[in-house]
Design brief:
The chain is an alpha+beta fold and 87 residues long. It contains 3 helices and 4 strands. It has a 4-stranded mixed sheet, with helices on both faces. Strand 3 and strand 4 form a beta hairpin.
Length: 87
């Protein structure tokens, strides 16, 4: 077992349907990722703001491609185009 962190980091909230949609896509693609659960209060999500420029979740950082993005629909499309059958 390697100590290497997965290349993809997902910033998410507990019980967030948009976040779960991204999780499902990551799982369907068999992609390793690291979950970072963020503060429920929108104004407290400084860690997400630092990485993505926005406080909204879900947000991903993909170190494989250098891509950082938010909005679940965009993330799902990106993952499918980059790693899925659309790749």
């Amino acid at each position: 077992m390697s100590d290497e962190q997965p290349a993809i980091t997902l910033y998410r909230l507990q019980a967030c349907p948009y976040c779960e949609r991204v999780v499902r896509t990551l799982d369907d693609q068999g992609l390793a990722y690291q979950s970072r659960f963020v503060e429920p209060m929108h104004s407290d999500r400084n860690v997400v703001k630092r990485v993505s420029g926005k406080r909204s979740v879900p947000a991903i950082v993909d170190d494989n491609t250098g891509v950082t993005m938010s909005e679940s629909a965009n993330i799902v499309e990106y993952l499918e185009n980059t790693y899925g059958e659309g790749a």
